[in-house]
Amino acid sequence: MKNNKLNTNERLLSANSALEQIEKSNEDKKVTTILSYKTYLLGLERNFEGALKTSKELLQLSIKRKDSAMIADVSFRVGYYFLMEAKKDSAFLHYQMANSIYTVFNDSVKIGQSLAQMAMIQSDYGDYIDSDINAINAITYLDENDKVYLSAIYNCLAISSKGQFDYVEAVYWYDKAIELAPNSIEKIRCLNNKANSLGYMKEFEKSNAIFENILKDSIIENYPKTKARVIDNMAFTIWKQDPSKNVLTELLSALKIREQQNDLVGLATSYDHLSEYFKNTNNTLAIDYAIKYLEVSRKDKSPNEELKALQALIELNQKSNGYSNYARYVSLRDSLDKAELNRKNSFAKIKYDSEKNREDNLQLKITNSKKELQLEKEKTRNIIGAAS
After folding, report:
1. What whole-number distance in Å separates Cα of residue 242 and Cα of residue 34?
2. Which intervals of the chain form a coiled coil (predicted)?
3. Is 241 in contact with 204 (CB distance < 8 Å)?
4. Distance (Å, rounded) from C-alpha 137 to C-alpha 134?
5. 195/202 Cα distance (integer angstroms)
6. Cα–Cα dist 19/284, whole Å
7. How many CA atoms lie within 13 A of 143 on its CB side?
8. Any idea of the CA torsion for 4, 9, 12, 13, to the nearest 10 degrees?
9. Other Cβ atoms closer than 10 A to 288
């Protein structure tokens, strides 16, 4: 069956044929082997929907056999394919299931990897406190030579710090991620993020130098989503430094690439930046882009981005739909606040040898989460008050 001289489609046909024959004889072990191989082939073809379906079959079989080790491994795999299908909630649940079993078996590497995946999903949702907890814990379990996961975790911690407006901390973690980046494109992605954070710190010269070097690297032409991200970030940083600069061509260039790639996350950023770009010069266009920002954030099921889009619309004073925007903003803000308050605010002390005070700072962030939520509520009241 594993004939490497055949192309992937031919190997899939062979696997399906073997599967039909073995299922008739009810040989579970052979079925498991073939289903696993079939999942691998579908993954190679980037047929993630098919790989997910086959992985689910494999998971049901492992549950039927009460094979805990297999359940954990297949759950991890199912989580990956859910992630590839942009179904992050389902991915998180399966990584969590895998992690709970790996913990029983005390499989340090797998514990670290599943915690890392959970942390990255939580960061994507803006759940920065729980993301930090899982990311730091993941580091304690991973081998120091596991550069792929360690770099990803450092990048995750940087994104979390940036999301909490701690740009100095973000740059620290981006530097660690860059140092361990497993390949050129991952290094470029981390450099882009670092440059973006430097821009927020008003370190414009350093920021622009990094962006320019990235765009000189020919490898970026093979990664249009990353190229669009760099173009957009660089243009927006230049404009933030000097609002008289005309960077519209670059902003629209990044938008066009993102539309071609159907990059929902990227589109949200482009619409956000374009809305802000036109905020003081063309209110109609600013509102149009803010509406698109709202629509794509809802399509991507990103409540934090939806909240930002609603805030932009309120500040632009879109009177025609003002009340519904205010009402939705208050409702969504209240929902997010309640979810945050229900999260754990404390956890067992993390035994991780980090730079002085970093662990204490992380604990402090968690302890003060309720205070931060109260500030968010006050900010909401101010926004509504100013807009009414």
Report:
1. 60
2. 338-379
3. yes
4. 5
5. 10
6. 60
7. 6
8. -110
9. 15
The answer to whether 383 touches 311, Cβ cutoff 8 Å, is yes
| Buried-state track 255-276, b at ≥16 Cβ within 10 A, e below 16 | bebbeeeebbbbbbbbbbbbbb
Question: Looking at this protein, which amino acid is placed at residue 128?
Answer: Y
Contact 87, 113 (CB under 8 A): no
CA distance 193 to 176: 12
Torsion angle, CA of 329/330/335/340, rounded to 10 degrees?
90
Q: How far is the C-alpha of 29 from the C-alpha of 2, rounded, in Å?
A: 17
What Cα–Cα distance (Å) separates residue 124 from each residue in 60, 169, 268, 302? 29, 18, 13, 9
Q: Give, in degrees to the nearest 5, the angle at Cα 330 between 324 and 334.
A: 145
Q: What's the pTM value of the predicted model, to 2 decimals? A: 0.71
Residue for token pair 């500040």: 315
pLDDT of residue 124: 83
pLDDT at 66 over 70: yes
Q: pLDDT tens digits, residue range 151-168?
A: 999 999 999 999 888 999
From CA 211, how far away is CA 230, in angstroms rounded? 7
Measure Cα distances from 32 to 39, 62, 210, 236, 376 in Å.
11, 8, 49, 51, 51
Please report the DSSP string for 72-134 in residue order: HHHHHHHHHHHHHTT-HHHHHHHHHHHHHHHHHHT-HHHHHHHHHHHHHHHHHTT-HHHHHHH
CA distance 274 to 268: 10
Instruction: Summarize pLDDT for 70-122 with one digit per residue, the tens.
Output: 888 989 999 998 888 878 888 998 999 999 999 999 999 999 999 999 999 98
CA distance 386 to 381: 8
**The two three-digit tokens of residue 240, written as one number:** 């933030």
Where helices occur in 142-247 by DSSP H, the ranges are 147-163, 167-180, 184-200, 204-216, 224-241
Distance between CA atoms of residues 40 and 49, nearest Å: 12
> What is the per-residue burial (b if ≥16 Cβ within 10 Å, else e) of 173-203?
bbebbbebbeeeebbbbbbbbbbbbbbeeeb
Using alpha carbons, select from 168, 189, 105 the residue that is nearest to residue 141.
Answer: 105
